[in-house]
Design goal:
Elements lengths: L1 H46 L17 H27 L4
Length: 95
């Protein structure tokens, strides 16, 4: 009976582990490849007067690693700065 319980608990833990990995992967894909790329692409295009990056907004996969990293980091930093600014405004300057 212990063998059946051990087998079921291992199967349950494997399933839970795979579910967590899938969730982390989906969050990373959405955060980096979609949100950070789109925000960073808009910021980079505006700052460079429509010259950088050469790829279109939906062409994350065609960008080189360096370009993708620069654009995504720009997008993440923009979101962090915007979030901090909104938090400060919403806080009413207390603290």
């Amino acid at each position: 009976m212990d063998d059946v319980g051990d087998c079921l608990s291992r199967l349950l833990l494997k399933g839970l582990y795979l579910l967590v990995r899938l969730t982390v992967w989906l969050v990373f894909e959405m955060l980096v490849e979609v949100i950070a790329w789109w925000v960073g692409w808009c910021v980079c295009r505006t700052a460079s007067f429509n010259a950088f990056p050469r790829e279109r907004i939906g062409e994350y996969d065609r960008a080189s690693r360096l370009v993708a990293m620069v654009v995504c980091v720009t997008g993440m930093l923009t979101l962090l700065v915007l979030g901090a600014s909104l938090a400060r405004v919403a806080g009413g300057g207390t603290g």
